[in-house]
Amino acid sequence: MKNVCVISTFQGTLDDAKKLNDEILNKFPGMVEEFDLVEMPYDKEGWTRVLVIANILDMEKMQEAMTAPWVVEWDEKHNNTDEVYALEKMN
Known about the structure:
This protein has 91 residues and is an alpha+beta fold. It has one domain: 2-Layer Sandwich (Alpha-Beta Plaits), CATH 3.30.70. Helices cover 35% and strands 40% of the residues. It has helices at 14-27, 59-67, 69-77, and strands at residues 2-11, 32-40, 47-56, 81-87. The chain has a four-stranded antiparallel sheet, with helices on one face. β2 and β3 form a beta hairpin. The longest helix has 14 residues, at 14-27. The radius of gyration is 13 Å and the shape is globular. The two termini are 17 Å apart.
């Protein structure tokens, strides 16, 4: 298991991100144990920034999901950039 944080910035809405996330979870079952997806403030009209914190059970599936052709197509269509961070519990 690995805890990760993904910050995505894209042209679109929070609903667009939730829909993509649901599709990924349906097509890659067993990848994530639990996660939170929240919208962050972003001052660029027509753009959205979301933060996902997830407990990843299968890092290979995560890599496969992030590079799946239909996900890459979504990223390109929405000018998406992802920043991915590994998290470590400190207490």
